[in-house]
């Protein structure tokens, strides 16, 4: 999510904050100007858009770089690691080690990211443009 969002952002823009259980923040920003800073962007998201895709969506939306269309995203805003149960045993436990915050410090876990323009997301993936209403292409 960070690298992809950075392709469309100016340098030194906040992309995501990773906050651990002690409140220690790892701020991740775009390092340099991206390859495309001018083309209009519309992101089509749905209820299954999660995790790194939400990081990218929030970064482009909150940095005023893209319009978000579709429906509210899933809301997977946590970082997890898998710990093996016992050596030689199958299985593991997912342990939450941190959470994501958006550039404006919103916690997206279990809330998702709201859209700027509601749109039908049931159109075919081969023609996503058919899902987008004209107002999704407004100037930011």
Question: Can you walk me through this structure?
Answer:
With 140 residues, the chain is of the alpha/beta class. The protein has helices spanning 2-6, 52-62, and strands spanning 14-20, 25-29, 42-45, 67-70, 78-84, 92-101, 117-118. It has a 4-stranded antiparallel sheet. It has a 3-stranded parallel sheet with strand order 3-4-7. A hairpin with a 4-residue loop joins β1 and β2 (25-29). The mean pLDDT is 93.
**Average pLDDT figure:** 93
Q: Give the tally of β-strands.
A: 7
The description of the largest β-sheet is: 4 strands, antiparallel
Q: What percentage of residues falls in helices of 4 or more residues?
A: 10-25%
Rg value = 17 Å
**What separation lies between the terminal Cα atoms?**
21 Å
Give the helix/strand class: alpha/beta
Task: Describe the structure concisely for a colleague.
With 140 residues, this protein is an alpha/beta fold. 11% of the residues lie in helices and 28% in strands. The strands form two sheets. Strands 2-1-6-5 form a four-stranded antiparallel sheet. Strands 3-4-7 form a three-stranded parallel sheet.
Write the topology of this structure.
Blueprint: H1 2-6, E1 14-20, E2 25-29, E3 42-45, H2 52-62, E4 67-70, E5 78-84, E6 92-101, E7 117-118
Parallel strand pairs: 3-4, 4-7
Antiparallel strand pairs: 1-2, 1-6, 5-6
